[in-house]
């Protein structure tokens, strides 16, 4: 809760995901005292230009797929360390931003580690490769349809085993032109 509050406050001051995470980390370190840490991915989409700016602190990569762009999903994973361990230059210098120009047909997916770590009854993890294969085979779907398909597939994979980690997924499908020329 404290991290979300800090992110909301700092997001009003700057449009840089990197700077927001640096300021949030500076606020969290004294309270967490290296007893806990947080992973975060923060993306900011400029709808006018179609530019997605992403910074992350030890989180799962954002996946981007568009059959007209690349044959396989691309991982958006700028460097960064978890929030709450250290502050100052050691944290700041490791944190990078990725800038990606989105275009029509792009499917993006943000997810927690519970998605690739979901195990079946043989102890096998669902894995990032399965996510990539699903994006390739189902990337033509809308974001909601893709999410529904993915969650059914994960439920089938897990069977009757309990879900042991957080399972959160956000998807975005660019369904029309973006940027200055988009009407």
List the helices and strands and how they pair.
Blueprint: H1 2-11, H2 17-32, E1 40-46, E2 51-57, E3 62-65, E4 74-76, H3 89-92, E5 97-101, E6 107-111, H4 114-117, H5 127-138, H6 143-158, E7 169-173
Antiparallel strand pairs: 1-2, 2-5, 3-4, 3-6, 6-7
Helix pairs in contact: 1-2
What labels describe this entry?
single chain, 183 residues, four-stranded antiparallel beta sheet, globular
Structure, explained:
- This protein is of the alpha+beta class.
- The protein is built from six helices and seven strands, in the order ααββββαββαααβ.
- The protein has helices at 2-11, 17-32, 89-92, 114-117, 127-138, 143-158, and strands at 40-46, 51-57, 62-65, 74-76, 97-101, 107-111, 169-173.
- The strands form two sheets. A four-stranded antiparallel β-sheet has the order 4-3-6-7, covered by helices on one side. Strands 1-2-5 form a three-stranded antiparallel β-sheet.
- Strand 1 (40-46) and strand 2 form a beta hairpin.
- Helix 1 (2-11) packs antiparallel against helix 2 (17-32).
- The longest helix is centred in the first third of the chain and has 16 residues, at 17-32.
- It is globular.
- The N and C termini lie far apart (39 Å).
């Amino acid at each position: 809760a404290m991290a979300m509050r800090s992110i909301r406050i700092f997001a009003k001051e700057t449009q840089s995901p990197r700077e927001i995470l640096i300021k949030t980390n500076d606020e969290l370190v004294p309270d967490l005292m290296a007893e806990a840490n947080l992973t975060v991915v923060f993306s900011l989409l400029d709808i006018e230009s179609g530019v997605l700016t992403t910074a992350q602190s030890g989180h799962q990569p954002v996946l981007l797929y568009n059959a007209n762009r690349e044959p396989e999903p691309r991982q958006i994973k700028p460097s960064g360390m978890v929030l709450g361990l250290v502050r100052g230059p050691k944290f700041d210098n490791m944190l990078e931003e990725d800038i990606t120009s989105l275009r029509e047909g792009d499917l993006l997916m943000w997810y927690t580690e519970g998605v690739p770590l979901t195990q079946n009854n043989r102890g096998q993890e669902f894995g990032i490769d399965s996510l990539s294969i699903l994006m390739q085979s189902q990337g033509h779907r809308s974001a909601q349809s893709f999410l529904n398909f993915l969650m059914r597939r994960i439920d089938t994979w897990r069977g009757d085993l309990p879900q042991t980690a957080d399972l959160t997924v956000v998807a975005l499908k660019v369904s029309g032109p973006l940027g200055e020329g988009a009407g």
